[in-house]
Amino acid sequence: MSHPRRHLRLHLRLYLRLYLRLYLRLYLRLYLRLYLRLYLRLYLHLHLHLHLHLLLSPPYHPDLNPGTGAVHNHGRAETGFSFSGLTGKEATQSITRAVVQWVGASGWGCRAEAQMRYIDPPRLKNGGCIAYWSPPWSAYLDLRVIRKDGPPIAVEIDRADESTAVDKLRDEALRGRPALWIRWHGALRAELPAGVARLHLPTRSSKSPLRYSLALVTGTEAITLGPAVTPEARADALRRDQQRIADEKRAAARPQEPGPTRCYW
């Protein structure tokens, strides 16, 4: 009678050992996945809010008027992230200049018109009389912030939503790089791609002549964050990015093909 009991005990031990091992594996896998998602989302949220709060603080400028804290430029005043009476081009330059000053005050580097690559390979498309590559082989970011303690930050500055900024920032975020979209004036896009933060600067415009003004921004209520990039999306983007690099090398090794064709009337 001792043998059946001994076999039963052995079977129970093996069953419990296998059950606990499988249960712990599944539990730890699910727990770590959920924990990492929440941790990454919270980290990105706090990290971007901290840096954007510093960005909204008026940066030091050597030409500041000690009495008013304003930079005088042909009768127009600029105070940190505020300006008045500027054209569209001048407003974009003012915002870009403020970001560059903030980057320098943070001890980082900055590169304007930094080259980047889209993740998806380009395809030749026909648009009536024009043949073109979409997306193009290369694109350029308005600014790339170079940090010593983290990946570079991709920055795009736009007056309207009708641009390729969202596509560029989406691909940079999928590569694990913080992406910031500074949008000033006009209506906002309803949704943001994963990993992209948007800073909205609500400007006002006047007619005849068209000029833009921005009141001093002092809070973080103008900041909107897109959803966190999932590990699955990042892994898929890495795979497509490697495929795009291989396609680009093969295309560079082939004889040069004729460029886009155009029709002239």
Give the SSE order as H and E letters: HEEEHEEEEEHEEEEEH
Uncertain ranges:
53-79
Strand order of the largest sheet: 4-7-8-9-10-13
SSE-based structural type:
alpha+beta
Question: What's the overall geometry?
Answer: elongated
Number of domains: 1
The percentage helix is 40-55%
**Count, helices:** 4
Rg result: 26 Å
Task: Report the span from N to C terminus.
Answer: 102 Å
Specify the biggest β-sheet.
6 strands, mixed
Mean pLDDT: 76
What is the tally of beta strands?
Answer: 13
In what range is the share of β-strand residues?
15-25%
Give a description of the structure.
The protein is an alpha+beta fold and 265 residues long. The protein has one domain. It has helices spanning 2-56, 88-105, 165-174, 231-253; strands at residues 71-73, 76-78, 83-86, 109-116, 123-127, 130-134, 139-146, 153-158, 179-184, 196-201, 204-206, 211-214, 223-225. The strands form 4 sheets. Strands 4-7-8-9-10-13 form a 6-stranded mixed sheet, sandwiched between helices. A 3-stranded antiparallel sheet has the order 3-12-11, with helices on one face. The longest helix has 55 residues, at 2-56. The radius of gyration is 26 Å and the shape is elongated. Residues 53-79 have low confidence and may be disordered.
